Amino acid sequence: MDTKLARFRDYFANRSIILTGGTGFVGMGLIEGLLSSSPDLRKIYVVVREKKGQSPSERVVKLLSSEIFNHLSAETKAKVVPIVGNLTAQDLGLDPITLKEIRETVTVVYHNAGLIKFNRSLKEAVLMNVLSTLRCIDLAKSLVYLSAFIYTSTAWANSNIQEKILEDLYKTKESPREMIKLALETPSTIDRVAESQDDFIEGHQNTYSYSKQLAENLILDEMAGLPTGIVRPSLGN
């Protein structure tokens, strides 16, 4: 067996994972890769909300019926556990029993979910891409045995940088927490300054890439000293 694949398999042996964005393109590929390469993986908890009349369980059943999973046994697919959640709520909106189980058994957090529409308001982008990241960070910090926190960003997160973009984190003018605070205010301060939105997203083509850069800054601020990785795929979530 390839050495890297063996290390990957061994790392995830007897581990449980929590994953957001599992029904999206990136999440689907990640779930398939984990199940295929890590036979001793315990569970993959997928945070899912009801959508278009489909319950979280129905959405995961539909996900696992995709052709990409056809080579996997029913026993392997059963490791994928749907849990009802809300990414902008405290503790992801998990019920107390599920939350306790997650905190005591999960060691790896994959945060893939996000709003990838380019024409949404700054408020929507901040809530879905920055506040949700804060909620996932808080959950990760509460785990008894945190081994890794992995955030799926985008290759466009630092598209406001005019020179060569390095594998680095670039600071935003605004504090991520301050932007979250503005987005949560009612009536929303961000909505009131919508006409000057370009002042916030200076150099970015849309609120999506700006909010992703904010989320990366939030991780830099909040996860110092903790095992953390940021992935920047060229495709959306």
TrEMBL record:
GO terms for biological process: long-chain fatty-acyl-CoA metabolic process. Gene3D superfamilies: NAD(P)-binding Rossmann-like Domain. It comes from the Eukaryota. It is an enzyme of class 1 (oxidoreductase). GO terms for molecular function: alcohol-forming long-chain fatty acyl-CoA reductase activity; alcohol-forming very long-chain fatty acyl-CoA reductase activity. It catalyses: a long-chain fatty acyl-CoA + 2 NADPH + 2 H(+) = a long-chain primary fatty alcohol + 2 NADP(+) + CoA. Pfam families: NAD_binding_4. This is Fatty acyl-CoA reductase. Keywords: Lipid biosynthesis, Lipid metabolism, Membrane, NADP, Oxidoreductase, Transmembrane, Transmembrane helix. Catalyzes the reduction of fatty acyl-CoA to fatty alcohols. One of its GO terms (cellular component) is peroxisome. The chain crosses the membrane at residues 12-35. Belongs to the fatty acyl-CoA reductase family. Its EC number is 1.2.1.84. PANTHER family: FATTY ACYL-COA REDUCTASE CG5065-RELATED, MALE STERILITY PROTEIN 2-RELATED.
